[in-house]
Amino acid sequence: xxxxxxxxxxxxxxxxxxxxxxxxxxxxxxxxxxxxxxxxxxxxxxxxxxxxxxxxxxxxxxxxxxxxxxxxxxxxxxxxxxxxxxxxxxxxxxxxxxxxxxxxxxxxxxxxxxxxxxxxxxxxxxxxxxxxxxxxxxxxxxxxxxxxxxxxxxxxxxxxxxxxxxxxxxxxxxxxxxxxx
Length: 181
Prior knowledge:
Blueprint lengths: L1 H21 L4 H9 L7 E2 L11 H6 L4 E5 L8 E4 L6 E5 L2 E4 L4 E2 L3 E4 L3 E2 L5 E2 L5 H12 L3 E5 L20 E4 L2 E4 L2
Parallel strand pairs: 1-2, 1-7, 7-10, 10-11
Antiparallel strand pairs: 2-3, 3-6, 4-5, 8-9, 11-12
Pfam family, one: 5-FTHF_cyc-lig
Protein name: 5-formyltetrahydrofolate cyclo-ligase
GO molecular function: 5-formyltetrahydrofolate cyclo-ligase activity
């Protein structure tokens, strides 16, 4: 399965790079409109790296606490530190920046980055399993909404999965919102 996912990631990176070059259209506005229905709820977003679609406008517009992921150690669930525009940042590893200080939050809604997704609601991530572990942990405690955020061009026929992979509840792309049953 590792080799299958590795090949899928290579193709997904290329597709995302092409989509990124075309621009994200109204994707952030679609995301912000969806999140408006979750005002006051703790939200996890992410600070985009490389060719990831940019959720920052929606995160800034959110009415409620916003956190970004922090990787505490390999093969562990993520933690989320409260973030706001202009807060002091530091290196978070893996090419990311994280808030240098701030409260830890436990999000009920997560904006999840990805390389590819399919019509079943599965996503292909970077291979560390951080979001799968995190969603499993949070969902064991209470309802937790996983919102994939991607370019429509990142959709593939079928994401290779194993028993550990967690499904998204919905995906928001530059073409709109799709819920998964």
